Each structure stands twice: as structure tokens, then as C-alpha cells.
Amino acid sequence: MTAELSSRIHTAAVTALAFVCTYVLAFYWNLDRPFWAGFTVFVISLPSIGQTLQKGVLRMFGTIAGAVAALVLLGLFAQERMLLLSVLSLYLCLMLYLMLTSVYYGYAFFISCIVTLIICLMAVHEPQDAFHLSVYRVEETLLGIGVYTVVTLVFSPRTSIKSLYRGVQDLMAGHKALFVMNEGAGAEGQMSRMYTQYVGMREILDKVGQLVPAVQLETYQVYRYREHWERAVRCSAELLELQRRWMGTLVAMKDLDMASLFPHFESRVAELGKLFDRLDAQGKEGSPGGSSKPEDVQPLAFDESVFEKLGSTRKGLAFSAVKLFEEQTAHCRELLMLAGFLLHGGPMPELKPSASKKALSVIKPEQYAYMSQMFVIFWVATLCWILLNPPGLESIAFLELTIVLGLIGIMTGEDKPLRQVLIFALGIGCTGLAYTFIYPLVSNLGEFIVMMGVSGFFITFAFPRKEQNFTKQAFMLPWLSIGNFTNLPTYDFGQLLVGSFTLLFGISIVSLVHYALFMPNTEALFLQRQKAFFRSSEALLLHLRACREQRRGSLFRLRMLFRLHRTRFLAEEIGILAKKLPVTFVKPELVRVFSTEVQDMVSSMQGLYARLRSVDSDLLCPSQPGTARVSLVEAPLKDRLESMEAVVRSMIDGLRESARAEKGPDAPAGGQVVQDLLVSCAGIMKSLSNTLDLMRSLPVEVDSRNKF
What is the CATH number of the domain that holds 249? Predict the structure, then answer.
């Protein structure tokens, strides 16, 4: 028996035992809806005690907050049902926004959504029962959390500390593997392999980031140094982004003689490689403690005579390479010190503030998409309930379950409409078979315990992975809600039919709304957003060239904030659409590289604007007003990109002239401010250059290439 299979059996057995104990206690105390206690057990069943406690605590606070919010809403709007539903829909959207923006507490906001929804809808006919419903809901949730926690502590007191250590070790090895890929930068297929490695490391980072708060509840050592663990995760994430951008810069410079431009390029890269070798060694078990300080790495410098012969585009890339090399070195040294301390008991390093700036974004496309989807689902279900009055376990149950299904789809990330319907249909079919042929044979509590234990074991064992959460809930929700098991067992075949219809109708509404809003004509939407992005980017570049007097105005700052937010929003939306494009439209690896380049472009523009705000001079203001500009409506994308390159090229040339004026004609650069501005412009130029190269490599017809 493999370790994975043994772990699955153990987890399923513990969950089944807690599930049965929860139902027995709910029957004994005659709770109103044992379904919610059993549902809680399934939801918080996780591999370790720390993860279980973390999710249980979040569920408890979310339940209490949702109950309080429901009582407040009912107290204010109980007599005005449509007003209550309107406020409730806005409240759900707000909680959904908080869920999507919160790193650690998102699950609490998700539970608050569901609890508020259920209490408000169940009390819509009898608001005087709202307090009792709130108390019952909290009781049932606490029962499920308490029983599962006790059973886990007694029978399966496993921790996630080894998983956390293993995740950090995988990150160390992944950074080394990504660095080694630099040797073949520009080779055919290398960017695709690099991107695959990058995506894999992003997944490991997400996993480690979720484990840190869970392991804090298990181990005091991790809790005591939690800031160092969190900083190590952030530092690794920042280093990963720097490595990706470094690779992109090397690809853009593949036609240059790097040995001539950077006289000590090979030796400097070799010095950096030694740091990554040490990083890889730190992640291996049995490695010596990190007591020695990381070696110094000399900065990368270019030959000024060779540099001056380059065009503005290549000059910008050279500046970008120098800065990225310096930042990679600093992050690698910091991560080495943190890993030596956390994994091997080395000296405790001093924590440094994160150098990365938070992206300027009021709302992200994913948040907007999910909020709008939830709002539409709510009101479509409400109108169906009011106008069609579909049958259900109760009339209001249709509305309740439909919105809950929409929330579950959002929480689990399931975004394939047809698959949603088919999975729930399969879950309902299995429930129907069990309810029709097995439940009538149950005649006493012992047989009921066996039936519930077997069902709990099967559902947990069959769907152990995180990406199977939607499927797990598609089997669990019909079994618990349609069965509606209480301590007064009744078999009602009509209840099965009506409940099945309710769930199928509800999930169909959820799937149709998702399809109508997000699925049709993805290719056209991608091209439209792409065109809008480059139109907005060109306007933003021209705004960045504004003179000092213009930048001081409040109206100009508002326009800049709007333009920055819109450009970043479009870049992130392109990234989301890129994942949904069919393979027949363009190769997936090409469109992924494109989506990352446009996001890098926005980050560089944002950095440029942030630095310009601290400069009281006209460094980027054109010497002659009225820069020539390509029409934004009819010009093909290639012409727009070349126009933007010309704008950035003039910005780089202007900065170089300013540097020479300050320090003489033979100086490579001016002060630190000019150097920082040059680096930001170089980042924009790198993204533009790689985007143009990508367009030339597209394996499509000329017309399609121009469109793309």
C-alpha cells in the first residue's frame, strides 16, 4: 500500500467517524437541521490538525458574523421584502469582494455570505423566527467543528510541519532549476519550458503560503517566527518574478554579443549561480546550517563604448538587465539567510521591508467578474422564484440553494458550465439510487450509522484533492439536503423528485448565467481587450511625458490614476481570457508569454509614474511639443507598438542627455533618480520588444497576425 493511499484511507475513516458522531449528537439534542452540522464536518476535513483548526475557526467566526448581519438586515427591512432582497444582494457582493481580496480570512467571508443568505431567506415569511434560526445555525456549526476537532486530536493528530518544510525545499530547488534555464535563453521552446516551471513554482508558493498560518496553530516554533516564515514566502515570490523578467530580458537581447556589452558577464552570472547552488543545497535534508554569510556578487556593468553604439531599445534592455541582476542577487542572499535560519537553525536575519509595491488596483477583473456573476445569479433566481414559483423542498429553498450553488462554484473555482451541470446530475443520480434502494432498508439507529459512515467514507476517499472540491460538494450536497435526515426517519419519494428538480434547476441557472456572461466568443473578446490595452497604454505613455506644471495639477493626477487603473485592469483581464482561448486560435505558450509581458509593461509604467512624482523637473517632457502619433482607431497593432517604442526611445534618449549634462559627456548615467527612471523605461521597452517578437513568430496568416 502506497503512502498516498494509506493517507487517503486514514483521512476518509476519520471524516466518516466524525460525520457519524455529529449526526448522532444532533439527533440526541434534537437539533433543527442536522444537515448543517454534517456539512461542516465535510467542509473542514483536511489532512492536518492545524489546517482543520484554521478552517474551523474561520467557519465559526464567519457563521457568527453572518448570523449577526442577518439579524440586522431583518431588523431593518423585514417588512419590505424587495428592499431586503436588494440589500442582501449588495451584501453578498461585498462579502464576495472581501473573500477574493483577503489572503487568510477569505473563507470566513464566504461562510458569512451563506449564513446571512440562509437566515434571511428562511425568515422572509416569518421574521419572528430569525433569532432562533441564527442560534440553531451557530449551534450546528459549532457542533460539526467541535466533533471533528476532537476526533482528529484523538485518532489522527497529524501536523503539516513536514509539508511546510518540504514545500520550502521544493521552492529552493525550483529557483535553481529556473536559473539553469537561463543558459538556453532564446532557444526554441525554452520560454515555454521556463513558463511551465514558473507556473509550477507559483502553485508551490500558494500551497506554502496557505500552510504557514495553519502550522502556526500546531507548532510554537513556527508561531514565534511567523514573520520570518511569511517574509521567506514573499521573498521567494519576488525572486520568482525577478527570474521570469530576467529570462524575458535575456530573450529580448539574444541577438547581442553579451560578452562585449558586459565584459564580465560570464563570471558575474557564475557568481550568482553559486548563490543559487547554495540555495538549492539549503533545501536538502542534512545540509549544514546556514551559519556562513552568503558570498558577495559583483554588480553587472556594461562597456560604455559598446553601449553607446546600441540603439535606444537595446540601451533600455541593458539598463534593465543590470537592475534585474542586482535585485536577483539581493533577494537570493536574503532568501539564503532566511532558509538557513528557518530550516537549519542558523543566525536569525534582520527582516527587511518588501521592496515590491502593491499593484494600484481598486478592483481586479476576477473580482468584478465573480461579483457581477453572483449579482446576476441572485436576481435571476429571485425572479424565477417570484414569477414561476418552482417546486422545491419549500418554495424558498429553490432560491436559497441556487445562490448557495453559485457561491460554491465561485469558491471552488469551477468555471465550466456544462461540467457543473453534469457533475451535479451525477451526484443527484447517485443520491437517488441510495435514497431509493438503501434508505428504505434502514430500520434502526445502528443501520443508519453504518449507512452514513459508508457514504461519508466514500465521498471523502473518492475526492481527496483540492481541485476536486466542487465534485466533492456535488455529491455531498444532494445526499444531505435531499435526504433531509432527522431523528424522525421518513421515506418520501416525492421529496426526492422535487429536491432533485430543485438542485438541477438551480445549477442550470448558475451555469447559464456563467456561460452568458463569460463564455461566448472568447477570441473576439480577447482581441477587443488587447486593442483597448494598447490604446490605453499609448495614452498613458504620453501622459507620463507631461511637463512639470501639468503634473502638479489635481485633475492631471486624477486622470493618471484612472488611466493606470484601467490599463492594469485590462492587462489582468487579458491574462484571464488567455487561459480560456482555444488551442486552434493560438498556441497556449505564446499567449501566456504575451499576457505576462503586458502585465510587466503596466508594472514598469506604474514604477515610472511613482518615481516621476518625486522629481521636480522636466526629465521626460519632450523638447518640442506635439509628438507625432499613430491613429488609435485604424492603425494595426504592429504600428501602435512601433509608435510606443518610438515614444519610449525618445524618453530614454532624453534621460541619457540629462545624465550627461549633470556629470559630463563620458559618464554612463546621472544620479540615482535618473538611473531609476531609465530602469523603468527599460522595463517598458523590454515588454514592447518581446511583444513585437512574439507577433512575428505567430503561426497564423498575415491578417490574423495583424489582428492579434
Answer: 1.20.58
* Distance of alpha carbon 687 from alpha carbon 574, whole angstroms: 15
- Closest by CA to 468, choosing from 42, 1, 15, is 42
Q: Are residues 292 and 191 in the same domain?
A: yes
d(CA 99, CA 443): 44
User: Which pLDDT tens digit goes with each residue over 40-64?
Assistant: 887 777 666 777 777 778 888 888 8
Burial of 179 (0-12, 13-18, 19+ CB in 10 A): buried
**Chain-centre distance for alpha carbon 174:** 20
Contact (Cβ atoms closer than 8 angstroms) between residue 49 and residue 159: yes
> What is the CB-side half-sphere exposure of residue 20 using CA atoms within 13 A?
18
Q: In Å, what is the CA distance from 589 to each residue of 372, 585, 586, 698?
A: 30, 12, 9, 11
Instruction: Give every residue of the chain whose pLDDT is below 70, as ranges.
Output: 1, 46-48, 103, 125-127, 156-157, 184-192, 285-292, 312-313, 352-363, 388-401, 405, 407-415, 489, 518-521, 547-551, 583-589, 614-637, 659-673, 694-708
What does the alpha-carbon distance between residue 541 and residue 563 come to, in Å, rounded to a whole number? 10
The CB density around residue 271, as the number of other CB atoms within 10 Å, is 16
At CA 88, angle to CA 87 and CA 91, rounded to 5?
90
Helices (H), 466-587: 469-483, 493-518, 522-544, 548-551, 554-578
User: In the numeric block, which cell numbers belong to residue 356?
Assistant: 515590491
Quick check: is 646 in a domain?
yes
- Which grid coordinates are listed for 591? 499567449
The three three-digit cell numbers of residue 652, written as one number: 530614454
Q: In angstroms, how far is the first alpha carbon of the chain from the final one?
A: 52
- Full-model pTM: 0.75
What one-letter code names the amino acid at 237?
A
What is the span of the domain harbouring residue 177?
A: 161-217+226-344
CB distance 312 to 649 below 8 Å: yes
Q: Give the integer Cα–Cα distance in Å for 537 and 542.
A: 9
Cell numbers placing 441 = 432498508
Same domain, 36 and 108: yes
Amino acid, res. 52: T
Question: Three-state SS for 303?
Answer: coil
Which string of DSSP letters, residue by residue, matches 391-451? Answer: --SSHHHHHHHHHHHHHHHHHHT---HHHHHHHHHHHHHHHHHHHHHTGGG--SHHHHHHH
Cα-flanking dihedrals φ and ψ of residue 664, to 5°? Answer: 105, 160
Residue 261 corresponds to which cell in the numbers above? 556589452
Give the separation between CA 380 and CA 267, rounded to whole angstroms.
Answer: 64
Cα 486 from Cα 136, distance rounded (Å): 14
SS (H, E, C) 485-504: CCCCCCCCHHHHHHHHHHHH
Residue 242 lies in a domain: yes
Number of domains, the chain: 3
Residues 554 and 625 in one domain: yes
Residue 82 CA neighbour count, 13 Å, CB half? 2
- How many CB atoms are located within 10 Å of the residue 55 CB? 21
